[in-house]
């Protein structure tokens, strides 16, 4: 069965910007062809644990003797890897929290990025290679897309680095700026830009859903 893997991690409840956009994208993708399913993982409601040993970052042949990986942790990691490897595409709600990736999302990514397996040591392509990933990243302020890290965006660039550059997935990022315009009075002047950014993101996600 062809499925989209949809990931949420927002903790902002009914205020969330990423959750409705992920849902919107998922619905549009489902409607674009017959025989499709969405598999859903909510990392805020059901977080995966942090890695407890560096052994989980390396293929068994690359592990040090002291890096003992227990069976349950290995099985959990394999399940997460298989879920991504089997997906037709992945959509990730990745809000900016403290200029960075939400820790729940980071823990999930840490399970996927394994040297010697999902990042083969012999130069071959890994199991995630070529899988499209849509990253939906709302943030309270605005960041310069020409050089995002210079302006403080440590959310989207690291996700693109690990999923795209390192694991070979086809990452497309869609950001929403100034989502705090209605909460923080000093940002009220940006409410027009906020509305425009949200509308542009929604339209881009609809377009992307019809192409995947
Ligand atoms: C814990 C936390 C930390 C945040 N840190 C930042 C930040 O560093 N920079 C920023 O522009 N916005 C920040 N924000 C605002 C969020 O990025 C913004 O509300 C965004 O819309 C969150 O997406 P979500 O509602 O889907 O979770 C933060 C919000 C929370 C809850």
From TrEMBL:
Its cofactor is FMN. It catalyses: N,N-dimethyl-1,4-phenylenediamine + anthranilate + 2 NAD(+) = 2-(4-dimethylaminophenyl)diazenylbenzoate + 2 NADH + 2 H(+); 2 a quinone + NADH + H(+) = 2 a 1,4-benzosemiquinone + NAD(+). Its EC number is 1.6.5.-, 1.7.1.17. One of its GO terms (molecular function) is oxidoreductase activity, acting on NAD(P)H, quinone or similar compound as acceptor. Keywords: Flavoprotein, FMN, NAD, Oxidoreductase. Belongs to the azoreductase type 1 family. HAMAP family: Azoreductase_type1. This is FMN dependent NADH:quinone oxidoreductase. It comes from Gordonia asplenii.
């Amino acid at each position: 069965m062809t499925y989209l893997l949809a990931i949420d991690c927002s903790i902002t409840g009914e205020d969330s910007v990423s959750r409705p956009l992920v849902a919107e994208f998922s619905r549009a993708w489902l409607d674009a062809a017959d025989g499709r399913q969405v598999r859903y993982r909510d990392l805020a409601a059901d977080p995966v644990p942090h890695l407890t040993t560096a052994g989980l970052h390396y293929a068994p042949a690359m592990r040090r003797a002291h890096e003992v990986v227990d069976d349950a942790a290995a099985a959990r990691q394999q399940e997460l890897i298989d879920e991504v490897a089997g997906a037709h595409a992945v959509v990730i709600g990745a809000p900016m929290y403290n200029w960075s990736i939400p820790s729940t999302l980071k823990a999930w990514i840490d399970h996927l990025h394994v040297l010697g397996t999902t990042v083969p040591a012999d130069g071959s392509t890994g199991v995630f290679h070529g899988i499209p990933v849509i990253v939906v990243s709302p943030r309270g302020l605005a960041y310069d897309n020409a050089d995002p890290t210079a302006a403080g965006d440590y959310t989207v660039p690291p996700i693109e680095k690990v999923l795209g550059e390192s694991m070979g997935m086809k990452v497309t990022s869609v950001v929403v700026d100034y989502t705090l315009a209605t909460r923080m009075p000093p940002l009220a002047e940006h409410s027009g830009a906020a509305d425009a950014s949200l509308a542009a993101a929604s339209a881009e996600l609809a377009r992307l859903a019809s192409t995947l």
